[in-house]
Amino acid sequence: MENPELDQTGVNLEISRLAAMLSRNQRSQYASCESLEFKHFATGILMILASSVATVFFGLKWPSFETVSPLASLVALAAGSLQTFSKFEHRARDHKQAAVEFGILHRAARARLTGAYSEAENREFLESLLSDYADVSNSAPLTWYSKRRAQERLRSEQAPDS
To answer: Is pLDDT of 13 > 80?
Structure first.
C-alpha cells in the first residue's frame, strides 16, 4: 500500500474508510452470532417441549397417545438432529470471535484518527491494518451480508457489457 501521493488527509481518509468497513463487518458478525445462538436455543426448547409432550401422552395413556406421542417423538428427533448437525453453538462462537477481532482493528483505526500520530506513523499503521484486515477477513466465517455481496459481485462480473 506504499503510495507516496497520499498526504496526511489521504492516509486518514483511507484509515477512516477502513474503520467504517471494520465496524460494518463487526456488526455483521455479531448479528450472525446472535441469529445462530437463537437457533440453537429455539431448537433446544422445541426438542424439550416435544419430548415432554411425547412422554406425557405416552405415560398417561390418553386416548390420543397413539398419534400424538409418535409425532412428538419425531419432532424431538428432528430438532435434536438439527441442533446437533447444524452446530449452531460452534458456528456462533466462530462469528463472535471474528466480531471481536474486527472490533479490535476498528478501535485501533479510530484511535489513529485522533491526530495524535504523525503521517509516517499512520502510513506504517495503514499497511499493517490492511494486512491484519485481510488476515481476519480470510479467517472469519461468512455472514449473510458477505454472501449476498459476493453473489452481487459475481453477477456484475458475469453480466455482459452493453
So the answer is: yes
